[in-house]
Amino acid sequence: MQQQVKKSADVWPVDIERKTMVYAVLAITLFILVSLVEIPFSMTMTSEEVQSLYRMLEFFNIMVAISIAFQGWMLFPVTMSRHRLLIGALFLVVGVLDLQHTINYQGLSFFGGESSVQKATWCWVLSRFICSIFILVILSTKDKEISVYQRKPVFSFVILLLILIFTWLGTQSERLPLLITEQQEVTLLKAGMEYAASFFNLAGAVLFALLYRRDKNPTMLRFATASVYLMLGGLVFTQNQTGDDWYTIMGHVFKFCGYYTIMKAIYVSTIEEPFRRRREAELALSKSEKQLKTITNTLGEGVIVVDRAGSITFVNPEAERLLSWMKEELLGRDIRWIAQYKPPCDGAVAYETSPILQVLANGKKRRVEDAMFFRKDRSSFPVAYITSPIIEDNQVIGAVTAFRDITDSKKAEETIEKLAFFDNITDLPNRFLLEKQLAEAIREAREKKMLGAVLFVDLDRFKTINDSLGHGIGDELLKSAAERIQKCIEGKYSVARFGGDEFVIMLSEIDHVNTVMRISSSLIAEMSQPFFINGHELFTTVSIGVSLFPKDGTDPQTLIKLADVAMYKAKRLGGNHYQLYKEEMNTLTPERLALENALHHALERNELELYYQPQIETKTGRIVGMEALIRWNHPEQGVISPGVFIPLAEETGLIIPIGEWVLETACRQNKSWQEAGAPKVRVAVNLSAAQFYQEEIVDKVKSVLETSGLAAECLELEITESIAMHSVDRVIETFRELHKVGIQVSMDDFGTGYSSLSYLKHFPIKRLKIDQSFIRGIPSRADDAAIASSIIVMAHSLGLQVLGEGVETEEQRQFLAERGCDEMQGYLFSKPVPAKQAEELLKKQTVVNN
């Protein structure tokens, strides 16, 4: 609408300007024609008809002048323009003088006196003179708004002036100079006064045109046109010869056009133009209101307007939707039904201190990022809003509040916070939140002089399960482990997932270290129970390291590090244990790190070597197999036992490339022995859990056999019982595929794991290896002897061969032989020897007794 109003305001003066120029050109053209061509009325009209036309034009002029006076009196009921009031008063004088001119000219009495042509002509001249001068004077001054009560003084003064003029004319008419001779000719004085009036008209036309050019006020353009008409009329009157000729008639026409244009200007400026502008303003306001309504209706935010008392006066549709109220139900209600301020801390504050009322009180805009609004059912939802005061005459009369539902953004913030501080698998706090909580617990422990502890919990053999069964099963195991840990601490303490398969438990405000030991023991017992996940029965244990605060440290990083050191001590002891941190444990950390770094380069530097220990057939004493055993020839520490570096390889993931190297080397060596003339025997290779659970393990074994040229029956793969029990179904399937190829499979360390006969009978394996821990106690320990005997009987009942490993004495050999043990292995026959020496043993079919 603003653009439309501007367009209308721009076009309207231009249109008036064009019309005015046309009228002015026509008037000037007409004046020139009148001046050049004399048309005697006697040729066309009688004297009576001319006089009638003359009187009619005179009365038209009088009526227009009086109308202008009435406009000046009536158009402004409260305030008015000074210009319009003075012009109205001026034309009251002009109209009355013109009226007296006409009356006297017709021979009627003059305010009780005698009428005369001289009096009539003086009224005419005074009217012309006063009109031309005072229009110029009035409009050359600055207009301003005045009180309507100034009408009476102004018009009273005009009436008094008229009385004085008529009195003067009535008493002094005989003494006044003649303006018309007895021959009805114009005197020089009248002509001079007419020219003077025309001059003032010309000056007015120029001035008003300049004012129009400056302000683009159409009223000034009309006054300029009117001045041109009056000037032309005055000039025509100076050419009057008889008083009833063509010049007189045209002079009155020009005079009428001048008066009418002035009346039109006042009418347009006081009625038509204000009405037009008001109409345009109303249209603009209407459109603005429609636009505002459209904006507020489509705005993605709710809008509420309240008055000075806090009562709702307006709501938009979005506010209705968000608040679940109808507009009619909200209007007039106190804002406290809707809005409740929520301070930074939890809870709400009194209504009187809410930001919306503060805005009403102090008139300052407020932005609130977290507040609560209430729906119709009194349920709340979080919002952010801006409240701005509504100010009128420097007074706050209300406030407008634009608000939006921030439920989604708060959920996003919570999600971000959860991603930042919580583990996405177990929903436990992560290490970042743990360190914050631990720092606070340490501070409180120091202030209250209480004891606290950090338990670093590591799942034993988790990597094996994760690599073999996939990350999905591994993640489920982590969730179940987290639930068990939380169950053990009964919600009294904090637990976090530190990373991988590691958890950290923070115990605060404990009375004695025995509490830590009790919780650790309980946790170990709980985690030893099998996990049933997606049809798999899984077994895992935990290794726990414990550091105490503030005894062992006073910052989170140190305490976690020391608990980690203690955990590795528990793991080196075989796992399924807990260890309290001791200062001397720290000396192991650099050594372990150095050993780990060296192990990364052991393969590429050819520091690994295979030794072979013969496996003897009990009945014949022949060598029927060689078990491949790995050794690490460290350049500085010498030969390192597998018991030291194999756990490290499993932890670091190096066990897979090392295991592949062992398999390839053992197969090539066995083939080399055969090609050198040694009898065919099997070579036994231990597979780690990480190797065995690889998806392509069978294909890899086939590839190694093809590459080395070794027959499948000359390779035996040894799997520990604990590995087999982690995923029985998969183990059975893998065993069957290996059996189809012709590869022998044996179960190593039998009796130390979970010995489930219901699964064992389904395993397509060749033999069981009795763990050396049972052989070592034979025959002195009855329980070991009984276990060994039972394993032999059970294996034979299942059609399996039995190998006793770790045989070191003749008594042990004799005991096993008497009970039908099929094969033996141990230092009694031979220690593990290098490949060359093993070849000699095979060729001679003799063993070395140490």
Reconstruct the topology from this structure.
Layout: H1 2-36, H2 47-74, E1 79-81, H3 82-105, H4 117-140, E2 145-147, H5 151-172, H6 188-215, H7 218-237, H8 246-298, E3 302-307, E4 312-315, H9 317-323, H10 327-330, E5 339-341, H11 355-362, E6 366-374, E7 380-392, E8 395-405, H12 407-421, H13 431-448, E9 451-459, H14 462-469, H15 471-489, E10 494-499, E11 502-510, H16 513-527, E12 531-533, E13 536-538, E14 542-549, H17 556-572, E15 578-580, H18 588-602, E16 608-617, E17 623-634, E18 638-640, H19 642-652, H20 655-675, E19 682-686, H21 689-692, H22 697-708, E20 715-720, H23 721-724, H24 728-741, E21 744-750, H25 757-760, E22 767-770, H26 772-775, H27 782-797, E23 801-805, H28 810-818, E24 823-825, E25 833-834, H29 835-844
Parallel strand pairs: 14-15, 17-19, 19-20, 20-21, 21-22, 22-23, 23-24
Antiparallel strand pairs: 1-2, 3-4, 3-8, 5-6, 6-7, 7-8, 9-11, 9-14, 10-11, 12-13, 16-17, 16-24, 16-25, 17-18
How would you portray this structure in words?
With 850 residues, the protein is an alpha/beta fold. The chain is built from 29 helices and 25 strands. The strands form five sheets. It has an eight-stranded mixed β-barrel with strand order 16-17-19-20-21-22-23-24, surrounded by four helices. It has a six-stranded antiparallel sheet with strand order 4-3-8-7-6-5. Helix 1 runs antiparallel to helix 8, helix 2 packs parallel to helix 8 (246-298) and helix 3 packs parallel to helix 5. The longest helix has 53 residues, at 246-298. The radius of gyration is 60 Å and the shape is rod-shaped. The two termini are 112 Å apart. 37% of the residues are buried. Mean pLDDT is 79; it is low at 1-12 and 344-352.
